[in-house]
Amino acid sequence: MEISLSEVTAIFTLHVARAARDTNGEGAISLGQVQVVNLADTARHANPARRNKAIDSLREVVHCLSRPPTFVPYRNSGLTRLLQPALAFGVVRLLGTGKDLEEAETQATLRFCREARQVLTVPQAHHIAADSEEGAWGAALAALSSCDEAPDDTDLADDLASEQESSKPALNEGGEKLLSKVKMKKMTVRAVMGVSMMVTFGGIIYLGHVYLCMLVFLLQCFIFSELVGVRKRQAAERRLPLFRSIQWAWFFVASFFTWSASICEFVENSPRFVASWPTARLILEKNMMVSFSLYTMLLMVSVLSLRKGLYKYQITQYTWTVLTICIVVFQTQAVFHLIYAGLFWFVLPSSLVICNDIMAYYCGQVFGKKLIRRRFLELSPNKTWEGFLGSAFFTMVFAFFFSRYLCNFKWMTCAPEEMTFSIHPLSCEPDPMYRPQSIAEIVFEVLPRLRASLGKVPQLQAFGELEICRAQLHALSLAFFASFAAPFGGFLSSAIKRAYGIKDFNNLIPGHGGMMDRFDCQFVMFLCTFVHIRTFCTAPVSVEMILANAARLSLAQKETLIRRLQDQIASAR
Length: 573
Fold this sequence. Notes:
With about 575 residues, the protein is of the alpha+beta class. It folds into four domains: about 1-175, no CATH class; about 210-335, no CATH class; about 340-485 and about 520-540, no CATH class; about 540-573, no CATH class. About 60% of the residues lie in helices and about 10% in strands.
């Protein structure tokens, strides 16, 4: 095996010779060449031991072809999905020699690659003459050339033990500079795009509640597209007209069912919306029947679309669609309630997940595997205990102070009483939850028996005079969930990517991947917040909401309601 490294694209070229026949008798492969392009995009490739492990893993699944070079499309190739987990980093493209194989030939070759356990040639490293910094990668190439046989396991390169890492030669000064540039470029791109996303998010929050709901629905569409695309197989879908349309129809029916029920109760309180969209109001009021009718028709169309010979593929795709809808739609059905309960309950949990994600990255970079060497999670070898626990600490601190900051703005704490597309400030009397109170007052309300005990200890009495908002205590509870439970939504996302051999769900956001890569933890966080405020916080009830419900009563019921209200007012006086 020959490995050549270019300064610009870091091209690994593997020449493999093997005289063996596929066990299924479907073809023999004797000589071939594979070029893996753009392997040096991230700093983690710098470690020579990890790079060495990745090359060894690659030798077990190398795809040998013949004839002139041909382009192998990323993601649409079983070869790419097979090679990527072995490489443990993002393969942008593969360039191999050979003709464009049919599906059956490709599957036969992949079966051969899974069974190949040795390569006849020993790896040899050399420089390309065009490299300007010829000494930059010398130590890394020397480490690569020292590998004579493949490892027993084919796990990711990050699984290599620390003892093996320390036994390999380190990069020289030129190599360190080059790797530093690559790492800095990557972090700069991530930082710029991160700031851009936060500014955009803040701008949409300023526009108002309706626009924020529209943003959430748009994100749902992007994420659904990314998830269903994971299992896309173009060869089969060419024989299934409207198959993707049916999947999207399921998504829109589920979205209508979840959103319409939430929106309906607020439409009644918006005269401007009702006057402008009377048909929309009628549909929303009958949302249950409309949803059931759409579901029935879609079920019939889905069954009629089944084709002989593709039953298994179609059923598995529909099953995956249902799972995707559960992840994307039903977990976010509470978002509308959170937004209209006050932007505080939407902005805070979103910010907690973002803070936890950022601090997990930096704590892992600074302290990773220095205090606890035990692996944190098999699914994500790069995750460390230091990053997990460190991010939890910083998230709790951030939640305590950021929630107090949000309590100062009525735009965040006031619950709107109507749906409107116009941008206007909100004004209301802040709920006691958002007003500062002494710690003693909050504690005595929950545990009144402590009042006598607190007065006997001067230190506790002084501490009890400090003022906080009740919302800060709720924020700490949400921060605990965001630190220890919400990340498992991201781990599930990692499991899906690992199962299908992809690095990111999409490349829509440079340096961050796709929408699912950024919002995988937010789904369960929104659901937790909804359950929390319904359990521990009193839902605000406005006069407009009561009048909207009273308008549906008959004349006799309205008269009864008025008499009972008059009796209550008289007794209160």
